[in-house]
Every structure is written in C-alpha cells, then in structure tokens.
Amino acid sequence: MLPQLFASITSTSKISAPLISSYLKELCFYRKNPFQSYTGRIYEGILHPCLNSGKHYVSGTDGQPRSVRVPFHEHREMEISDYFSALGYILTHATTTASFTQLIHLLSCYAEWCRVSSSILDINTPTVVQMLLDDPSSSECPSFRTMAQYGHRNKLRFSFASSVSAGKGECREDVRQSRVSALQSVWRHPLLYPTPVQRAHAATGIGYEDSSIESSAELFGTPWGHCGESVSFPSMHHSITSGRPLSTLALSVKAMTCVIPGTDTIPVYTIPLLTNLTDVVEVLKVAGALRPMCLNCIYLRNTARGCIQDLAITFSASGDNPG
Ligand SMILES: [Zn+2]
Residue 14 Cα, ligand 1 centroid: separation in angstroms? Predict the structure, then answer.
C-alpha cells in the first residue's frame, strides 16, 4: 500500500521539489499499476513541470493552463489542469484495492501532500480535499458499524480531488473554468448563475467586511469549478445520474495538518496509525476536519437526482447515540 511510502517522506525535514518529484515519479511509473500510462502522462505533463517551475499549473503558449486529458472512471477524457487535481488523480489510481478506512488514510495523506506541495509551489494550500466513492455501507449493510468492519480486500471505487487554491497564485479562475468545462462535457443539467452559494450569501447580506467570515472563495461566494466535486462528480456521472448509492467525504486540509488545540495530535500523522474506523472518525471530529457539501454541490447532486450520502454529516452525528 502506498501511503506508508508517503509517510516515510513526510517524516524527513528536507522536503524539496526534486525529492517530491522523484517520489511522485516512482508512484506514477510503478510497474504493476494498471493505470501507469495515464499516471505517467500526468507526471510528465503536470506534476514534474509544476515542481520544476514552482507553479501550480503549466503554461501553454497562450499563457493559459495546459491540460492533460486522461480517462477518469466514467469520464473518457477528463481535463486535468492543475497540480492538486493531478495529485488527486494519481492517488486515486495508486491502488486498486482498499478498505474504507484505508481510503480515509489515503485522503489524509492527500491533505498532507497538498500542504507540503503548496509550500514548494508558493501558493495557498487548497482548503478542502474530497473523495467521492461507492457507498461503503450500501443498501444491504446500511449501518455505520458494518462499514467499520470493511475488510482490506474490498474494491471501493473512489475519486479524489481538492478545492482550487484560493488567494495568491495566478490562473486559478482558468483552472476553475477548465473544471467547469470538464463537468459540462458530461453533465446535462444546466448550472445556475449566480451559484447557489453566491445566492445564499447575497440573500443573507454576508460580506467580506464581516470579520467572522473567512474571506476566501471557499466560504464566500463559491463559484462553479472551485470545489473538488467539480472533478469527482463528472468522474462518476453515470453512477450519479443512475442513482447508484455513493458517498462523499470532504476534509479541511488546515484542520488535518495542524495540531489539535490542547493536544499534541496532528491528524495526518495520527490517522495512518489507526486501523479502527471509529477511532479515525473520532480524530476527524475532534479536529473539526469534517466539511459538509456546499450548496453548489448539493445543487449538482439534487438536479441529477443523485443518491450521495454526505459522510461529514453522518460522522458528525455518529457517537451521539453510542451502541
Ligand atoms: Zn462544494
């Protein structure tokens, strides 16, 4: 399993662009990986040049981000146009078997690598990492307890993606736009403008001047293309529109990579050591890392009549009724 390899690097203090690049190269060209031809293209086309140039996208001749098109589950030609989406893509294709708990380990690892990489790329860390996956509790075994017993040999199909890095760094609007194009190429339901999040903020009169609200695109007036779901939803668009049971889990990168106040616990270092799902969820809850879907993503789900359980909400409620 690959996360351990990640963990071995995160424990060193000499993280540099060449070190990350050589590690990711090994991951992308792993000989036994059946998706090697795609992950190899992602490495050559995005990850390596980004780390080389210290930017979160690769400039084309017109100055626009240059995308790499690769199959992503049910999307035959997904446009991957930035470093963090590329990282999510290769982690999605790094393993073909994983239990649900292992997927949370991998998502946690993704959060840490977004943090580490963003310091190298001199850009703000994406605020949220997200996975869309086959519902691990599916209809025949709907209880949380059953989900915790999910074995290591199960094949859960999943897609990882992050929100677009907000604030400093150029071309983020172009990256969002390319995600919107990828979504619209397979989504037959029209998008709403302004977005549902923007409408909700306008309706409540919340503005940047309100100091209690973080003035990032993540929380304020989120545009289409910003959330990780802009990548993961099109990757499973057939499943969504056919009503196949899916789950989503989004985590705050900041909460995952900082010390939990009053403890010496940093979730991304603690979680890989935990094999019991209940313990993992407890850390996510105490850390305040669970992020429910935003109104935009709920709108996408509902207009497509998707059956997507939001695990941030499920987990937040779990433990309130022990036993
Ligand atoms: Zn969203």
Answer: 34
